Amino acid sequence: DTAVSQTPKYLVTQMGNDKSIKCEQNLGHDTMYWYKQDSKKFLKIMFSYNNKELIINETVPNRFSPKSPDKAHLNLHINSLELGDSAVYFCASSLLSQAPYSPLHFGNGTRLTVT
Amino acid sequence: GNSVTQMEGPVTLSEEAFLTINCTYTATGYPSLFWYVQYPGEGLQLLLKATKADDKGSNKGFEATYRKETTSFHLEKGSVQVSDSAVYFCALSDGTGNQFYFGTGTSLTVIP
Q: pLDDT digits over A45-67, tens only?
């Protein structure tokens, strides 16, 4: 009965490879997010989708492409991985219709290591 | 614009000590305020929230009061335990709800 689940938990890959991270939420939320957390624990918003529509697209290299097949899923595909992409990536969801009262619910993160 | 500033860590306390982690914010409109906790190797979990001025959020012995006059939302706990060791994030949600603004996080270590 996990609320926000993302896979894989760990991802180790070499520079230049392409990888994907999947996220699913069963909370009935209408908005999903991707955040990047660096080694100093700083959180940076990357993307946000509301009902499959992109609503936040921060300054992120276009090697990163989010895809939302439906409002319960938001996947992140990364092309041509670089060393600087190493970080923990968090998926989150919220209920936009109850903004600003609805908090974010986070997944447990995917630790990406690029070698 | 919107932003959150929280005290820098790391913070180290002895068990049963009093904890305060300062958080101040700037916001347009009427934001909601949140504290999240991140235990090692895990995602962020909502600790408490307050949605309007003078509201007090509380959970697991932690408290924070939404102070509009001082634009603050300081986290307090009267007696910390070793199990409270984690990173704490202050955050706000703006009126649109599209965007959440996070502080830089404060690492807390509680020693026996």
A: 999 998 888 888 888 899 999 99
Nearest to A33 by CA among A1, A58, A16: A58
Q: What is the DSSP letter of A102?
A: P
A64 near A45, Cβ under 8 Å?
A: no
Residues A51 and A30: beta-carbon distance below 8 Å = yes
A88: left (phi over 0), alpha (psi -120 to 50) or beta: beta
**pLDDT per residue as tens digits for the range A84-95:** 999 999 999 998
> Cβ–Cβ of B32/A41 closer than 8 Å?
no
* Residues in contact with B29: Cβ distance below 8 Å, sequence separation at least 6, in sequence order: B94, B95
Choose the closest CB to B97 out of A4, A100, A109. Answer: A100
